[in-house]
Write a structure and sequence with these properties.
It is built from eight helices and seven strands. The chain has helices at 20-31, 43-53, 68-82, 105-133, 155-175, 201-208, 217-227, 246-249, and strands spanning 11-14, 35-40, 58-62, 87-90, 137-142, 180-187, 239-242. A seven-stranded parallel beta sheet has the order 3-2-1-4-5-6-7, sandwiched between helices. α1 links the parallel β1 (11-14) and β2. The protein starts with 10 loop residues before the first strand and ends in a 6-residue tail after the last helix.
Length: 255
């Protein structure tokens, strides 16, 4: 468990943070002393989210996390605003359901471009800055339980999330000499603004989850903060599954 000011003096970038898990990670980082760049593709959503956090230590940067030019600018702007970069959390992702037999190429490549490309190049750009600073750092990817267990109509999404976990393991070789940790958090069913649009979501996943409820965004954010905290300084290349025990039994929802 992190203390109340574990991140004092640290600067973090969190992508896909206009709402849901990403927003809660930003909010908790700021509460624990961090300066945070809150990214979302939707400019109004990013601005509103930063305003809700309500401090000069959280600034909004709107843009597409799959665009490498934007990612480079975001890192440069974060350093210009706060003087350094210590934490990069690649949370932006897209879920495009579809039957395997008719899944369109444009959906496949968009999932890969954002979920994999956006995460890879944020890690690369952030790691370069951390290497330059010479004081280590932390990188975190957001995976999913669908990277561990098959889920109908999510072949592309699931493979993208499994690939992120392999990326974290591989980057141990690249980043450990510079004291940069790289890990992955894999949420299970989570109550967010998006999942709340399904009136049956909470009831369904409460029945399917051994702990009797889906995760809250706080459940996921607290796990994420641990993995980028000083308390996890000797943990790297690992995936922390936060799913209330679902992957141990893996019952699927009704289709």
């Amino acid at each position: 468990m992190t203390d109340n000011k574990s991140f004092t003096g640290k600067t973090a970038i969190v992508t896909g943070a206009g709402q849901g898990i990403g927003y809660e990670i930003c909010r908790q980082l700021v509460l624990q002393g961090a300066r945070v760049v809150l990214n979302d593709q939707d400019e109004k959503m990013a601005t509103a989210a930063a305003e809700r956090i309500g401090t000069d230590n959280c600034i909004a940067m709107a843009g597409d996390a799959a665009d490498t030019r934007f990612v480079e600018k975001m890192v440069d702007d974060a350093v210009a605003a706060f003087g350094r970069l210590d934490i990069a959390i690649a949370n932006a992702g897209i879920t495009l359901f579809g039957d395997f037999f008719s899944y369109p190429p444009e959906s496949f490549y968009r999932v890969m471009q954002l979920n994999l490309g956006g995460s890879f190049f944020l890690a690369q750009t952030a790691a370069r800055q951390m290497k330059k600073q010479g004081q280590g750092g932390s990188i975190l990817f957001t995976s999913s339980v669908t990277g561990h267990q098959a889920h109908k109509n999510l072949a592309a999404y699931g493979m993208s999330k499994a690939a992120l976990e392999m990326l974290a393991r591989n980057l141990v070789i690249e980043l450990s000499p510079y004291h940069i940790t790289v890990n992955t958090v894999a949420p299970g069913a989570t109550l967010t603004e998006r999942t709340a649009e399904d009136a049956e979501y909470e009831k369904t996943w409460s029945a399917l989850t051994p702990m009797g409820r889906p995760a809250s965004v706080s459940d996921i954010a607290q796990a994420a903060l641990f993995l980028v905290s000083p308390q996890a300084g000797h943990i790297t290349g690992q995936t922390l599954v936060v799913d209330g025990g679902w992957t141990t039994v893996s019952p699927g929802p009704p289709l």
